[in-house]
Automatic annotation (TrEMBL):
InterPro entries the record matches: Acyl_CoA_acyltransferase, GNAT_dom, Mito_N-acetyltransferase
GO MF terms, alphabetically ordered: acyltransferase activity, transferring groups other than amino-acyl groups
Organism annotation: Spumella elongata
Domain N-acetyltransferase: residue ranges: 5-163
Protein name, as recorded: N-acetyltransferase domain-containing protein
Top-rank taxon, per record: Eukaryota
Alphabetical list of PROSITE patterns matching this protein: GNAT
């Protein structure tokens, strides 16, 4: 089932909604290599690093937007590698399967091109995150490398990570 979403730049008032998406994902320890005890302040500081453009995917309501997902766009490296972009995406568990991640992926690819990036690279995709792997491949990404047993998944043990 697909939901119609608008992707827009995040504003200060979105931070609580973004944290409500981030917290269960971080606490689960299943898809991001972040400290599962990370504080709200540290998590939002990470997401809103000065070199990150932060966006939210929203379902527009009559009185306020319902934030369904968030992503950041940044350069993957500095110096002579700054022409390649990187992103991080998180979707509200309530919005899984509704096309939110795809909408953000498509938006990020367009935004990266607009910003002058020559490509996009995902550095650390947990192999057991099947939904993400399938989505990235659907949108033209290829697995170019595998880091064997690089992520300690809380229930599956050590799993591979894709680049």
């Amino acid at each position: 089932m697909s939901t119609s979403v608008l992707v827009r730049l995040a504003v200060e008032d979105d931070k609580q909604a973004i944290w409500s998406i981030m917290e269960p994902i971080i606490r689960s320890g299943e898809t991001y290599a972040l400290d599962i005890d990370m504080s709200r302040e540290d998590a939002l500081n990470y997401w809103f690093l000065s070199n990150h453009e932060v966006y939210v995917a929203v379902e527009q309501g009559e009185t306020q937007d319902n934030v369904l997902g968030t992503y950041f766009l940044c350069n993957n490296q500095k110096g002579n590698g700054k022409h390649i972009s990187n992103c991080g995406y998180m979707v509200s568990q309530a919005a899984y399967g509704k096309g939110v991640a795809n909408a953000m992926c498509v938006h990020s690819l367009c935004r990266a091109k607009e910003a002058g990036f020559k490509g996009m690279q995902y550095n650390y995709v947990i192999s057991s995150n099947d939904r993400a792997v399938k989505l990235w491949q659907k949108n033209g990404f290829a697995i170019v490398g595998t880091l064997p047993k690089a992520f300690n998944h809380p229930s599956k043990g050590y799993v591979d990570v894709f680049v």
